[in-house]
DNA sequence: ACTATATTTCGCTAATTAGCTAAATACCGT
DNA sequence: ACGGTATTTAGCTAATTAGCGAAATATAGT
């Protein structure tokens, strides 16, 4: 789970994830959207893969990346939960500014 | 918004935020929960403050930190939104494995 | 003015990270 | 086997980060 947040900490990686929303893309397709060298992006892919945020699938000579939505959902809702942010249903515990002893 | 994700990328900082869920705590109170030197924690507080995830309030010689829930909510739901993760209401667009040209 | 307590700032080190170019690998077509 | 295209690995540099101890700052009480 830490890996997920580490992965999300970089803007380029977040943008990669956004691009993948529309469907799988090859490394090259993604690279076309960035002003970064391909090896740099390949590194980002590796981080995303290790966080299990994307899956890889080779198809001939090109490699397609596919968003792994459920992992992201789980991480985010896990954090929200641990923070007590109600997702709508879970009635907020809301400690509401309990002023300290003063 | 980038600052928020950067801030969330560190486990100690996430734990600090969790502690603050229950209500405001002084820097010293928080420090008692960690095995880190106070200057180190002070640095974490600074990061959280710059991300606007916590507010500071001096009370005599001690400084209380208070969770800024709304900023976190906004950042997370902003990300979920940009990722197309429905928060319940927004019907998922769900591109669902559109296999590429093949 | 002095002492004590709480917290931060300073100056440093070690580890991590994002970026690059060049070289290696993998697969396909001929 | 060779050449071409797609991507990754290797090896490097510069920037960032988390950690520390020591010193500085801020406030309160005497």
CATH fold category name of chain A: Arc Repressor Mutant, subunit A
Order of helices and strands of chain A: HHEHHEEH
**Number of DSSP helical runs of chain A:** 5
Classify the oligomer. Answer: homodimer
Strand order of the largest sheet of chain A: 1-3-2
Our count of domains of chain A comes out at 1
Short description:
Two copies of one chain form a homodimer. The first copy, chain A, is α+β, with helices and mostly antiparallel strands and 102 residues long. Chain A has helices at 2-8, 11-20, 27-31, 38-50, 69-83; strands at residues 25-26, 54-59, 62-67.
Description:
- The structure is a homodimer of 102-residue chains.
- Chain A has 102 residues and is an alpha+beta fold.
- Chain A has a single domain, classed as Arc Repressor Mutant, subunit A (Orthogonal Bundle), CATH 1.10.10.10.
- Chain A has 5 helices and 3 strands.
- Chain A has helices at 2-8, 11-20, 27-31, 38-50, 69-83, and strands at residues 25-26, 54-59, 62-67.
- In chain A, strands 1-3-2 form a 3-stranded antiparallel β-sheet.
- In chain A, β2 and β3 (62-67) form a beta hairpin.
- The radius of gyration of chain A is 18 Å and the shape is elongated.
- Chain A starts with a helix and ends in a 19-residue tail after the last helix.
- The interface between A and B is large, with 37 and 38 residues.
- The structure holds a DNA duplex (30 and 30 nucleotides).
């Amino acid at each position: 789970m830490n890996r997920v947040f580490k992965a999300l900490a970089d803007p380029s990686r977040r943008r990669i994830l956004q691009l993948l929303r529309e469907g799988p893309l090859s490394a090259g397709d993604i690279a076309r959207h960035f002003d970064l060298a391909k090896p740099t992006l390949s590194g980002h892919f590796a981080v995303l893969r290790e966080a299990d945020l994307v899956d890889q699938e080779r198809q001939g000579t090109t490699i397609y990346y596919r968003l792994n939505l459920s992992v992201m959902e789980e991480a985010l809702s896990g954090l929200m939960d641990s923070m007590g942010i109600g997702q709508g249903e879970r009635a907020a515990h809301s400690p509401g500014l309990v002023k300290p002893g003063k």
